[in-house]
Structure formats: structure tokens, C-alpha cells
Amino acid sequence: MSSHIKCLSKRKLDNKVVLITGGNSGIGKETAYQLSLRGAQIIIGCRNITKGNEAINDIKSKNPKANIRVFQLDLGSLLSVRKFAQTVAQHESTIDILINNAGVVSYVELQTEDGFELQFGTNHLGHFLLTHLLLPLLKNSQKAKVINVSSKAHKTGKIHFENINLRNGIFTPLKAYSQSKLANVLFTREMTRRLGPKSSITTYCLHPGIVRTDLNRHFPLQFAINIFINMFYLDIESGVQTTLYCALDPSLDNESAFYYELV
Predict the structure, then answer these.
(1) Which of 9, 121, 123, 169 has the most CB atoms within 10 Å of its CB?
(2) Positive or negative, the Cα torsion across 162, 167, 172, 173?
(3) 177 in catalytic set
């Protein structure tokens, strides 16, 4: 697909600190690259530091002026999230834009290090804790943004409060994924409500489109689905446009707790 609306804002981000989870691949990496072109100081969090450094080298090969660092972050480990937040706070006093981008899809029933269903624990709980821990740095910004990359799959989601980890035979990949993405949306809205109307922090959630990334790398019959993906999915550059729109477009500066999708 190529007929996708682009973010047209020319806003610069000189001296702004942008933190992106999952910034070593896919739309996270492309987001890091695009925002580095705007002059932002980029921090990416990812599980594999080697892959993170490879991503940085690739970005710097295209933008030698990129100011970008990587710290280790495993969103499936609450201990890792806490260590990451501490590391960030040791290096920065302010975060201007937090982009909760990382996500996983699992087609089998798996658990995080802390015993939560993998997708709920990684896609929602890891980002929930991270955002909470980084709130002091976000509040230090004159105008901060928290951008949660969700999915249109949230529309079929339900929060299974009575069995949040989908145990005892009720797990399905779609049920787990859509629950985690609905949690992203609800978190976005509730965060704004709790911060209150006078807060300097605005929140956004979004559907990036169905993007050609490695998110589906564990899907059964991968060769067959790759044919479908290459025919109908968005390319990476198109897939970052909604994130860029939320991060950059001035018309959104005074909006908060809404859901966005460029179509």
C-alpha cells in the first residue's frame, strides 16, 4: 500500500529529549531516524544492546548528525523496566516526548518474567510502569507528550479482569493481543484524567496501520504470510506517519487522551 497520508509538520525538535521503546527495529527505528532529522536527542530502549547499536550505526549512516543512545530495556521484566528508568534519570533531567512503541505478538501461550501473559505484560504493564517511573522527568518538560502505539485490534478487545492472564484454556493470540492494545487506549485516557486539565503532559494513542515489520516473525506458515504482507501491508516509512503526526503536529498540542489513525 502506498496511498497513506503523511505528516507534513516541519517542526524542529532541537534540544528536545525523545525516548522510544523498541527503537532498534521496525517503526521504532524509523521513528528514531525521522525525529533525529528534526534535531532531537534520541534515547532508544531495547532488549538486545548489540542490535540497538547496529540500529544506531544504520541511522547515523543516513544522518551523521544524529544524537542517539541506547540503553537496555526488557519490557517483559519489571526489574529491567526499573533499571532502565534509573539509567535514564542518571543521564537526563527531562524527557519531552515518550513514545511507547515496542510491542510483541505471541501465537502461543507465554509468560513474562513476572508471570503475566506475555502480550499484556509487555505491551501494557511494562509501558505502564515505565511511564509512571518517568513522570518526574516528563513533568520537568515545559510541554511533554506521551505517545502510546496501540492498534486497531483494540476494537475487538476486552479486559478480562477476572482472568487477566487468560489462563485455564481461554488464551487465544487475538484475545491476548487485543486485550493488551485496548489496555493501551484505556491507559492513555485514564492518565490524562488523573493528571488533570492543568497538566503540562498530553497523551496520545494511535494505530500505525498494518505495517510490514518483523512483528509477525513467529507466525506459523511464515513464508505464505510474507507474500500477503508484501502485497498489502504498509511500508515502514508509511507506518511511522501517525506517530510523527502525534509527536510533531502543532494542531495536537492542546489535545489529550485521543486516538489517532492517518488513513
Answers:
(1) 123
(2) positive
(3) yes
Model confidence at 166: pLDDT above 60: yes
Q: Which of 33, 107, 177, 233 is catalytic?
A: 177
Looking at every residue in the chain, the average pLDDT score rounds to 92
Q: Indicate yes or no: pTM above 0.85.
A: yes
**In which band, very low, low, confident or very high, does the pLDDT at 100 lie, cut at 50, 70 and 90?**
very high
